Amino acid sequence: MNITIYHNPACGTSRNTLHYLRDQGHEPTVIEYLKTPPDRATLKSLLQRMSMKPGALIRRRGDLYTSLGLDNPSLTDDQLLDALLAHPVLMERPIVVTPNGVRLCRPWETVKDVLTG
Predict the structure, then answer these.
(1) So where are the chain's domains?
(2) 101, 8 in Cβ contact below 8 A?
(3) Is the peptide bond before 94 cis (omega within 30 degrees of 0)?
């Protein structure tokens, strides 16, 4: 099965997801999104395939979210997408892409949903 994981090795949830995939016999394509962030088209496609708006993918922990004013309800989806593109660290992780679907795997056990279809 062709699997891609948008991964942050510093994130325990992301590490657990990758570990589970490998334990199941898969060797996914690993994209460390802090080093190689998705472009706008890819990010929009991932969001669409997950049926998510950009705001749902933004990590709210940490000072960056607050300092950028991303809690402002008047921000548009495009503005939130711009923030994700400018600051990939804001992206919740991991995102796993399989032929069965795309999921934000938080908690990591969510990955099972896209392995079984």
Answers:
(1) 4-116
(2) no
(3) yes
Q: Report how far residue 67's alpha carbon sits from residue 77's, in angstroms, rounded to the nearest whole number.
A: 18
> Residue 99: what residue type?
P
Classify domain 4-116 at the CATH topology level.
Answer: Glutaredoxin (3.40.30)
pTM of the model: 0.94
- pLDDT tens figures, 71-101: 999 999 999 999 999 999 999 999 999 999 9
Burial 8-40 (b: 16+ CB within 10 A, else e): beebebbebbbebbeeeebebebbebbeebbee
Residue 105 is among the residues annotated as catalytic for this protein: no
Catalytic residue among 5, 6, 8, 11: 11
